Amino acid sequence: MPAIQSNPQNGFVLSARSKERLGGVHRSLARIVHRALQLSTIDFAVLEGRRSLDRQQLLYESGATRTMNSRHLTGHAVDLGAWVGGSLRWDWPLYEKINQAMQLAAVELNTPVEWGGDWQSFRDGPHFQLPWGDYPILRQAQDEGAK
Q1: pLDDT tens digits, residue range 64-120?
Q2: What is the domain extent for residue 75?
Q3: Fewer Cβ close by (within 10 Å): the C or N end of the chain?
Q4: Is residue 90 part of a domain?
Q5: What is the pLDDT of residues 31-48, one digit of tens each?
């Protein structure tokens, strides 16, 4: 992975909507998102954080997800969208750059993060999550999101 330099002058800030969508997300993951935006060469928005079971069911039925055991249900996952020229873009190289910033932020904050783009069976470029092994407890997510 190419080195990324910190770029606090990039001018990227989370919108009110993105901040709202981080509500209920584990605070360690929220911190990574905030720091990654400072480091990123690509502006991004938070598309989705914590999900209700009903929302997960709808996504499952539509084929947008392949699981009913999503990290979104516990606030351990976020979906980020590349924001370029005033609109969302889905070009894969943009998500690789967002991942670079997320991984660098995770290292700085000493918090592991997994990227859905690394998955073999269902590559999910916008998806980032805290690993199951390091963050297994639903109650922890609920407590952290309430603070």
Answers
A1: 888 888 999 999 999 999 999 999 999 999 999 999 999 999 999 999 999 999 999
A2: 8-146
A3: C
A4: yes
A5: 999 999 999 999 999 999
Q: Is residue 2 part of a domain?
A: no
The model scores a pTM over 0.70: yes
Asked if residue 145 lies in contact with residue 50, where contact means CB atoms within 8 angstroms, the answer is yes
How many folded domains does the chain comprise?
A: 1
The three-state DSSP-derived secondary structure of the chain is CCCCCCCHHHCCCCCHHHHHHCCCCCHHHHHHHHHHHHHCCCCEEEEECCCCHHHHHHHHHHCCCCCCCCHHHHCCEEEEEEEECCEEECCHHHHHHHHHHHHHHHHHCCCCCEEHHHCCCCCCCCEEECCCCCCCCHHHHHHHHHC
